[in-house]
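Q: Mind making up any chain with structure tokens?
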Amino acid sequence: MARVAIVTGGTRGIGEAISLALKDHGMTVAATYAGNDDRAREFTERTGIAAFKWDVADYDACQEGTAKVVEALGPVDVLVNNAGITRDGTILKLTYQAWKEVIDTNLGGCFNMAKAVFPGMRDRKWGRIVNIGSIN
């Protein structure tokens, strides 16, 4: 049985490349996305990789979304925290709300997703969590 991986932000850019590489290595992949339904649908049609929509900044959505992946594909063995957003601006121009959105997605999302998958990994005594960051 193939291992199951979740790649957050997995339908575009670097996330898409990671999703495809994991699939090429025999894994069953779930790619998450937050907003572009048309792009996610096209991604799934082109790659055969299932796309699941939720905001990684939302703790409850991560719990619920991960449960849907487990129900559809099986227990999660690998998590790649790739989702991230940018709100470029100097400290003088960057609003608190923009700062909070970046922190909640880029950092909080890693915590939220790890909390969602770790209990199953611990129970099965196997799992991998990869966190990706960027200079942005």
